[in-house]
Design goal:
This protein has 241 residues and is α/β, with parallel strands linked by helices. It is built from nine helices and seven strands.
């Protein structure tokens, strides 16, 4: 991909997210003009998603929920398993991203996949879920603790919550993931940089998940960022209720 083709996305990211209005209107204002190019650009930005999906117990008859599902891109790596699932619910507050998700669902002919415009802190599926996914969504939610609580509450006993997201790797996160911490100046830079676009990397996320679920897999790593010389931290977590 070229810088020229990325310019519309970069411009919207540099403009940042509006400070006015409720969370839903902020998301729509930020993503409406980039929804069609969202997946193309973010393949180079959102690391670890396919690795997380490969670890999920997507067994025949399972009910799956993705909170902050956006365009539904995360179904693509597991597309062959979707028809065997009981139901998949893609939940998001942004109509423009959900429109892309609905087009994807129609293109695949997935009658068991439902795109839902709703608040991830309160929405619940009609039946308890076997798997809940939060992929690069919690850091964009003002009350991510409420989303985690809602996710665990909708899971069946033994169900799995799977999270991948940006993080800043402080010493607590580094110890949990058995890796090295980022320097304090790097952690400060990324929190300031992402806040402009409504993203809040929080080093308390991984410890919170580990304290509230039985960890099955924990990882923290660094990933490249388009046009940036410094790598951003991201974390993977799979836990069981």
């Amino acid at each position: 991909m070229s810088l020229i083709s990325d310019l519309p996305i970069l411009w919207r990211m540099l403009r940042g997210m509006s400070r006015g209005g409720d969370h839903a209107s902020k998301l729509e204002g930020f993503y409406a003009g980039q929804a069609s190019a969202y997946d193309r650009f973010r393949e180079r930005l959102l690391h670890g998603r396919d690795e997380l999906l490969a670890r999920l117990p997507l067994l025949p008859g399972a009910t799956v929920v993705e909170l902050g599902a956006g365009t539904g891109r995360n179904l693509e790596p597991v597309a062959g398993r979707i028809p065997g699932l009981s139901a998949v619910h893609l939940v998001d507050l942004c109509p423009s991203l959900l429109a892309v998700a609905r087009s994807r669902i129609a293109a695949h002919g997935w009658s068991n996949v439902h795109a839902v415009e709703a608040d991830a802190t309160t929405w619940r599926p009609p039946e308890p879920a076997d798997v809940v996914i939060c992929a690069y969504s919690l850091t964009m939610m003002p009350d991510w603790r409420a989303v985690v609580a809602n996710a665990t509450a909708m899971l069946k006993p033994g169900g799995v919550l799977a999270v991948v997201d940006f993080t800043v790797i402080d010493q607590i996160t580094a110890d949990l993931a058995k890796t090295s911490a980022q320097p304090a100046i790097i952690r400060w830079f990324w929190r300031r940089w992402f806040a402009h676009d409504g993203v809040r990397p929080d080093p308390r996320l991984l410890p919170h998940l580990a304290a509230n679920l039985t960890p099955l897999h924990i990882k923290a790593n660094r990933g490249s960022m388009p046009y940036m010389p410094v790598k951003m931290g991201y974390a993977l977590f799979v836990g069981q209720v």
